[in-house]
C-alpha cells in the first residue's frame, strides 16, 4: 500500500521546498526522498541549509532548521513525465494557497519541471526568480533525483543549493 506523504510545514519557514511528487519507494515507506539514489538530504547538509545530515525518517524535524517540504502532486510515479498537466496545474493552485497560509521567506522548486506550472511567466532556468508566489520569493534548484541527468551528479547540483542557502539567509 502506498502512503500519502505528509506535508511538512510551519509558520515563518526560511525555505519551503516543493517536490514534484513522491517516488514509489518514498510512498511505500511513507518517507520523503527515501530512494537511495536521491541526494536531497545530502544536498541540504553539504550546502549548509541544515546543521547535520538528516535521514528520510527525520523529515518532520526540518522545521527546527527553518525548512519545510511539500509535494506539488501527491500521486507517486517512477517518472515525473507520468503526471498529467491537469495534476500539476491543480497542485500549483494548492501550493499558492499553502504559501499564502504559511508565508515562507523563500519557496524552492525542486526542478525546472515545476516552473511553468507554478510561475508560468517566470524567466527560464535555475536560480532566484523576479516573480513572487503569494508574496514569497521563488528559487529553482536542480531536482535531487538520481534520474536527473541535466546536471552532472551531486557536484553539479550542489552549487545551486549553496546559492539557495545564501538567498535564504537574506532578509
Distance between the termini: 43 Å
Which class do the helix and strand fractions yield?
A: alpha/beta
CATH architecture: 3-Layer(aba) Sandwich
Rounded to an integer, what's the Rg over CA atoms? 14 Å
Rounded average pLDDT: 92
Helix content: 25-40%
Q: SSE order in H/E notation?
A: EHHEHEHEEH
Low-confidence stretches: none
CATH superfamily descriptor: Uracil-DNA glycosylase-like domain
What is the level 1 CATH name?
Alpha Beta
Largest sheet: 5 strands, mixed
In what order do the strands lie side by side in the largest sheet? Answer: 2-1-3-5-4
User: Which of globular, elongated, flat, extended, rod-shaped describes the shape?
Assistant: globular
How many strands appear in the DSSP assignment? 5
Question: What would the CATH topology be?
Answer: Uracil-DNA Glycosylase, subunit E
Tell me the count of domains: 1
Amino acid at each position: 500500500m502506498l502512503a500519502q506523504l505528509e506535508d511538512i510545514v510551519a509558520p515563518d519557514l526560511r525555505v519551503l521546498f516543493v517536490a514534484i511528487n513522491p517516488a514509489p519507494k518514498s510512498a511505500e515507506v511513507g518517507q520523503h526522498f527515501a530512494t537511495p539514489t536521491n541526494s536531497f538530504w545530502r544536498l541540504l547538509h553539504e550546502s549548509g541549509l541544515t546543521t547535520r545530515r538528516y535521514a528520510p525518517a527525520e523529515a518532520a524535524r526540518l522545521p527546527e532548521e527553518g525548512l519545510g517540504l511539500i509535494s506539488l502532486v501527491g500521486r507517486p510515479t517512477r517518472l515525473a513525465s507520468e503526471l498529467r498537466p491537469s495534476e500539476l496545474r491543480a497542485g500549483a493552485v494548492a501550493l499558492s494557497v499553502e504559501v499564502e497560509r504559511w508565508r515562507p521567506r523563500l519557496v524552492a522548486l525542486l526542478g525546472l519541471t515545476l516552473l511553468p506550472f507554478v510561475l508560468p511567466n517566470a524567466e527560464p532556468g535555475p536560480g532566484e526568480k523576479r516573480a513572487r508566489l503569494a508574496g514569497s520569493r521563488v528559487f529553482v534548484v536542480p531536482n535531487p533525483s538520481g534520474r536527473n541527468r541535466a546536471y552532472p551528479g551531486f557536484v553539479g547540483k550542489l552549487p545551486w543549493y549553496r546559492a539557495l542557502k545564501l538567498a535564504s539567509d537574506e532578509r
